[in-house]
Amino acid sequence: MPEINRHSSSGRGTAGTSNFIPATKDFSGLLPQDLKFRTPLYHPGFPFVILWSEKAACTTVVKWFFLQTGLIEEALKYHPWVHQYEGSIFKKRPGYLDDIYDALKRGTSVVKFVRDPFARAYSSYLSVCGAQSVENGRKWAVTARRKILKDMVGRRTVVEYAFSFRQYLLWLAGQSAHAPNPHIRQQHLPRDDYFGIRFCKIESLTENFRALEQEYGLPHSVTDRPELLESSHFHKKSNFPPAVVRALLDLSVPPRRSPEFPYVNFNRDIAKGTEYENLIVKCFRPDLTLYDYLADEPSSLCDLPDSVNQTPKAPIRESMMPSTISLNAKFGETLHVLVLGQSNVANHGKPRLKSSFGRSFHHNEMRPLADPIPGGSGAGGSVWTRFASMVSDTKLAPDLVISLRAIRGTSVKDWSSSGKCYENLVRELPALKTCQVPVTHIVFHQGERDGILGTDVDTYVGAFKRLHAAVSEVFPAAQWIICRTSYRRGRTNETIRNAQEQIIASCANCWRGPDTDQLGADYRHDGTHLNYQGLKAFATALVSTFAELAGHGRRSTAQ
Asked: Could you tell me where in the chain the CATH 3.40.50.1110 domains are found?
């Protein structure tokens, strides 16, 4: 294998790019056999492991990988269809899965190539409607086609019967997320949660190849072998007007068709506001949110019909987490919210959003408010972009600034005197004080870690009071919002909740904030971190809390 520069940073905790998904499960739960399905690409000495999915430029990705590892000529000589060498020779070598597992265990970087689920769904449909789906009994598409028709008709029937794209999506929506053939199932796999992943979108495939080549000092450039980017099974699309495309989508693509058959160019713009959008979001929500294919859309796109949303099963106590906002008063000044705490206020939610209202303040610089917000440990979505949109919609304040200083997995001692977070915060307080917009509120959302550690009430309250004293010395007029939070994987901790209630009752200028322990598993994407529904509910409760503060409707009688 050619010599490769391995200086680039790696490791499960290092992003190296904004397109990074941190691990959400402990690596010890991963087994080598978990890597059999969609077996990753890896070669000893190569600087990263490659994850791929069917119908997401996997052939091109494999060719590029073999180019970089010096195996491309051998692979093409073995068979023009590069997957033959990949499956029959390269991945058959003894210890291949163990090599991948050991590389992941060492913290080797992971790169995953992903595709827009809208385009991928239609590409999969065309494949199960291809000539080979009725002529080649060994082809995956004919097996999938037989199952689709059998489920639609209620009995086995001949594969020549045709079905439309809408019928296909309706069928797919009724399948288990992990049951269908890999060519048509989600790109995300449960095993992906055990290690951090940098994802590269194939919509910018050449640019991503070049970036990786430069970053890792790879020996070859994709521009030297442009033929490797060509695909023999690409469907050439015709640019019909949107109305014509939607009409043609209701017709069936025949399994036998001429070489000049005019395929429609289906994409998210064509689907927007139609049943196609709802069905694709229902089928591929994890891919859309994890890989940021909703990130550039307005937040209203997330407000999907109830038939598509994962509607929460557990009720929310309205006194703790209001579902509506009642404004009796508003702020006449800009809100500057300093956020301290753990992962659920630190960009570990899903999906990511942007807000046209509000700004973030970090390192003496005002920036647009977009997930992930600088200052948080995560690379996902946050409650703060939702909160900003609601502040704007309700006209609760003329402007908003968020200063995020929140780190996943931190204990209250980390935020107390001599703790790692405390020391970093104290160094940043002078810059926050000189900001053109003074800090008006401090949101503290922390407790999950201390539930694991078994922290007692006195220790928790004492550690918080030391943090409270240090910050209040710089911002004596700022109001503290103390959230009740201890929930982790289905359990809450009454000791931590009691400590938080004691803080609200005994510390000056501390007010009762949202109780996110009321948000159960249906509001969390991994048992701990908030999903779309959870972030929306949390943001609604925060706006309600701030509205009460604006009207001096204090939730505590602390003096």
From this structure: 335-550
Quick check: 545 and 514 in contact, CB under 8 A? yes
Q: What is the DSSP letter of 84?
A: H
pLDDT below 70 — which residues of the chain?
1-18, 133-138, 176-180, 231-236, 295-329, 552-559
DSSP 275: H
Query: What amino acid is encoded at 218 in this protein?
Result: L
As given in the structure block, the two tokens for residue 220 are 């070859």
Helix ranges (H only) for 202-327 are: 205-216, 242-249, 268-271, 275-290
This prediction has a pTM of 0.55
By CB atoms closer than 10 A (0-12, 13-18, 19+), residue 62 is buried
Q: What separation in angstroms does the CA of 71 have from each of 53, 74, 230, 554?
A: 21, 5, 18, 69
455 burial level (CB within 10 Å; 0-12, 13-18, 19+): buried
Residue type, 415: W
CATH topology for the 335-550 domain: Rossmann fold (3.40.50)
Say what the pLDDT of residue 112 is.
97
- Residue 199: what pLDDT? 94
Distance CA 265, CA 247 (A): 12
Q: pLDDT tens digits for 484-535?
A: 999 987 889 999 999 999 999 999 999 999 999 999 888 898 888 999 889 9
Using only C-alpha atoms, the chain has a radius of gyration, in whole angstroms, of 26
- Specify the pLDDT at position 507: 92
487 by Cβ neighbours in 10 Å (0-12 / 13-18 / 19+) ranks as buried
Q: How many residues does the chain have?
A: 559
Element (H, E) at 287: helix 275-290
Q: Which of 255, 360, 292, 327 is nearest to 115 (CA)?
A: 292
Spatial separation of the C-alpha atoms in residues 402 and 394, rounded to whole Å: 18
d(CA 244, CA 242): 5
What pLDDT is attached to residue 135?
67
Residue 313: the pLDDT is 33
**Edge-first strand listing for the sheet containing 197-201:** 20-21, 197-201, 109-114, 48-51
Cα separation, 539 vs 325, in Å, equals 10
